[in-house]
Design goal:
about 260 residues; alpha/beta; five-stranded mixed β-sheet; three-stranded antiparallel β-sheet; 7 helices
Length: about 260
Amino acid sequence: ENAFSFMIRVRMPGGYCTAEQWIAMDDICEKYANGTLKITTRQTWQVHGVLKRDVKDTMRAMNRACMDTLAACGDVCRNVMCCSHPAVCSRETMDEILAHTYAMHDHCLPRSGAYHEIFLMHGDEMAEKTQVLGSTPVEEEPLYGLTYLPRKYKIAVAVPPSNDVDVFAHCLGFIAIIKDGKLAGFNVSVGGGLGFTHNNQKTHPRLAEVIGFCKPSDSKLVAEAVLTVQRDFGDRTGRKHARVKYTVEDYGKEW
């Protein structure tokens, strides 16, 4: 068959990784890809030029380094970004904010076992999952349902005065409020995005609007609430008008 090649993107909330993971990714791009390890604008890695026959081995190598590509693409909650500026707050507060970033990201992950079944399981593991009787079971996602989202869903967490994540250009933004060195909560913004299609008047860039405040422990629930609103009310008639920003614009932030 043709030597089809692929780009593979890693899921890495907040852009956080260990030195061992960096070394592992460097080895992976040399062994399976075209030798380049690209850092994206949304705090993760991509490797390019992975041949079709090497896709599973590449993803298994990532998995051995405690990384995966689940929800790095597709109509789901993508990699959640977090401020990376080391001087905006104390290390303890930054660790707390990063923990909430991970919590909302993990809370919004798809629960399907298909990723592991297709890309990671092999050998004896595959023998353990064998359907003997009955029709193919329908696997429904608790948050995404049967249809997932109309389009991708992007979240960012900013820590003022830094806005290195460009928080108002995201579907959902959390702006950390720090008082007396402690994280008090987040101001919440919705409806941002800079993408548009030329010669299509229904599409345009839009800055997010602040709609309220939430406690740190509620951040993942806010992420879920915006996700489910978009799931149920987002425009599914055309993908170019299907982002959260258009849902907010069509219905209004008060709604």
